[in-house]
């Protein structure tokens, strides 16, 4: 991520490998229609990192025709786990404060 490899960082966080990238991309475009999320559960830290990566995309449209901001909000709330109140985490709190300072 620090070297500018945004897409590669995104894939690593999701647990995608070169062997199953097609399955991972299909699952991303068809949420709830595959067992990908069940087979590749993400930790709270992974959700937060995933949200931060999408936040870097900003207002640009990407997967599912969502902006980076919208995708970041989804992952900040636990992604497919759809948490109403995510557990407190120091990184989540810092990112939320910074996000409110700089972008919608």
Mean pLDDT: 77
Enumerate how many helices there are, as a single number: 6
The major sheet is characterized as: none
Structural class, by secondary structure, is mainly alpha
Along the chain, the helix and strand elements come as HHHHHH
Number of E-type strands: 0
Work out the radius of gyration: 13 Å
Large-scale geometry: globular
Distance between the termini: 22 Å
**Relative helix content:** 55-70%
Sequence stretches where pLDDT stays below 50 over 5 or more residues: none
Strand content: under 5%
Key descriptive features of the protein:
104 residues; mainly alpha; 6 helices
Give an overview in words.
By secondary structure, this protein is mainly α. 56% of the residues lie in helices and 0% in strands. The mean pLDDT is 77.
Compact description:
This protein is mainly alpha-helical and 104 residues long. The protein is 56% helix and 0% strand.
Write the layout of secondary structure elements.
Elements: H1 6-14, H2 21-29, H3 36-39, H4 44-57, H5 68-76, H6 90-102
């Amino acid at each position: 991520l620090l070297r500018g490899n945004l897409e590669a960082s995104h894939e690593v966080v999701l647990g995608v490998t070169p062997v199953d990238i097609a399955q991972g991309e299909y699952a991303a475009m068809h949420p709830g229609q595959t067992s990908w999320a069940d087979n590749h559960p993400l930790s709270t830290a992974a959700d937060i990192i995933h949200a931060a990566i999408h936040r870097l995309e900003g207002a640009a449209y990407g997967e599912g025709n969502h902006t980076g901001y919208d995708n970041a909000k989804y992952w900040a709330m636990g992604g497919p786990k759809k948490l109403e109140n995510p557990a407190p985490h120091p990184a989540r709190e810092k990112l939320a404060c910074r996000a409110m300072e700089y972008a919608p």
